[in-house]
Every structure is written in C-alpha cells, then in structure tokens.
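User: Before I run my own analysis I want an independent prediction to cross-check against. Here's the chain; please return only the structure tokens and, at the end, one sentence I can use as a sanity check.
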Amino acid sequence: MRVIGPSEYRAMPWKNEGGVTTEIWASPPSGTFEWRVSIATVNSDGAFSTFNGYERHIMTLSGEGMVLDIEGRGKFTLEPLQPFSFSGDARVHGSLLQGAVLDFNLMVRREFGFGTLRVAECKAGDRLGSGLSLHLAYVLQGECEAEGHQLKPTSSFCLGTGDFFTLPGPLKLAVCEITPRLLPLPNA
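Assistant: Structure tokens:
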C-alpha cells in the first residue's frame, strides 16, 4: 500500500486552460497517462476538456451539483457522491446548479483498460484489493492509522494489482478501480 498525502498532489492547469485541477495520481506520472485521478474546483459554467481515447468517471464532492450537457447523449445532473461516466471524446458543457462545486475524476485510457468509481462506506475489517485490478482510494470521512500512516479526509492510498488491505477503522472512501486489459484490442 502506498499512502499519498495532499502535499504530494500536483496542481496543474486544465487542458482547455479554463481552470486548475489537482492531480492525486497519474500513471505514468509524466507524459501521456494510462489513468489519472484528480480533483477540480469548478467556479463557473463552461466546456470540459476533451480527452480522446479515455473514459471519464466523475462525481461532485461538494456544492449543489452540476448539469453536464453531453454531445449525443443529452443532459445529466451530477449530485454529490453519485458517480457518472462518459466518453472523454464527447464535447461536454457543464452548468453549475448553484455556486461552485468540487469534483472528483478518474480517467482511464481505453487501450490500457477500464475503470470504475464508487463511494464505499467501510467499517473496520473490510478488505480492499483485487488480483486483477489496482485501486486508488480517497478518504472522504473518518480517520485511522494504517501501516504507520494517518489516513484522514483528503488523503489517498493506492493498492497495486494483487495487493490487499484490511481497514483498521471505519472510513468513507471514493474508490477508483482500474483494470488493465489482459488481451490486446482487436485490430490494435
């Protein structure tokens, strides 16, 4: 298990230069990423950056919510802690419902694999991990010590493929599960 504290997060401009995102983790850490987890404050309505070849998973962490108008799919309301997925290829416009929101994002390059985003209400003794997937968990609520590190809100931890972790205390987590493809894509 690798604990990632907020001091290790990296602030960077949005691809469309409309704001700033805080990157929690990217693999690989530089160049074109296979997958990335980030948080962004959205202060105004506007276009989302496009990420061709990626699947995007998003949820708001705070604020009243946001409506995504996704080209070819329609309008969808993001409510706090309710994950939503869409293609990074699509043109998307976000409209705030009532003031700024803080959103949480997982992006996975399709050729690399696929991902899921969920909120988990964990209790002491619950186990995270998988033999086929890696996990990045972001602490939303709760606090406990794990392997000599303090897990508390806004900290994260990463479990590699085949790694497992038994939670020593209750935590509410945003859990990203990233599963690499085992076989190449057809015609790749």
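Sanity check: The chain is about 0% helix and 55% strand.
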